[in-house]
Write a structure and sequence with these properties.
5-stranded mixed barrel
């Protein structure tokens, strides 16, 4: 029997934050509405729906901001309360969901009725679909070469660890930690299988390298 999946979820909209099934996402919680959300979630199932706003929003995401239609259910697996009132939590990704309908804001935070059907068959078991590791790692090397120190710092690449990591851990770590735009991270989230997510990563990194080459040649 799989985990009990709540029909409604509190939504935590966060630009550029990607949570994938079996991935882990550390979060620093300080806004009052999300402090309340975490307190409520700890009391009932520890479930939070991570989701991205449709637009790049600097700072807190307003309640009027449109959200993407797909997010990921996360379960609080680590929780610390800081002296200044913040919460430091870690969410473990369980399964993706589609937003069926946003509900009335309750206790300051957004909520939605959700549907897990399109994803739970894939998400609730280890995805063992094929990954072209050689192509993925080669494209990662090219991507890091053209992206500079910022991307290297974000990914904190340990090549020995990457080469030994299971396919799913490798792909999901690159997807979650990579310096990609929100719409690109959404594409990675919505890729149904691990094979598709890996291919999306390869394509994104290849396009970034191509764009860099074209830009460099234009300034020659």
């Amino acid at each position: 029997m799989g985990p009990i999946l709540p029909e409604t979820l509190p939504l935590f909209p966060l630009n550029g934050a990607l949570l994938l099934p079996r991935g882990q996402l550390p979060l620093n919680i300080f806004e009052p509405r999300y402090l309340t959300m975490v307190e409520d979630a700890l009391g009932v199932g520890r479930a939070i729906g991570m989701i991205q706003p449709c637009y790049d929003v600097p700072g807190p995401v307003p309640d009027s901001c449109a959200l993407y239609g797909v997010g990921c259910l996360g379960k609080i697996v680590d929780f610390r309360e800081m002296e200044d009132g913040r919460f430091i939590i870690t969410l473990a990704g369980i399964t993706r969901f589609k937003v069926v309908e946003e509900l009335e804001i309750e206790r300051g935070y957004r909520r939605a009725a959700v549907d897990y059907t399109p994803y739970q068959k894939v998400d609730l078991e280890e995805d063992k679909s094929n990954v072209n590791r050689e192509a993925l790692l080669e494209e990662l090397r090219n991507f890091l070469d053209i992206s500079g120190p910022h991307a290297q710092d974000m990914l904190d690449v340990n090549w020995d660890a990457l080469e030994q990591a299971p396919d799913e851990d490798l792909v999901n770590a690159l997807a979650m930690l990579g310096p990609f735009e929100a719409r690109e991270k959404q594409a990675l989230l919505e890729a149904i299988t691990l094979t598709q997510r890996a291919q999306t990563l390869i394509t994104m990194m290849s396009m970034a390298a191509l764009g860099h080459e074209e830009g460099s040649s234009g300034h020659a």
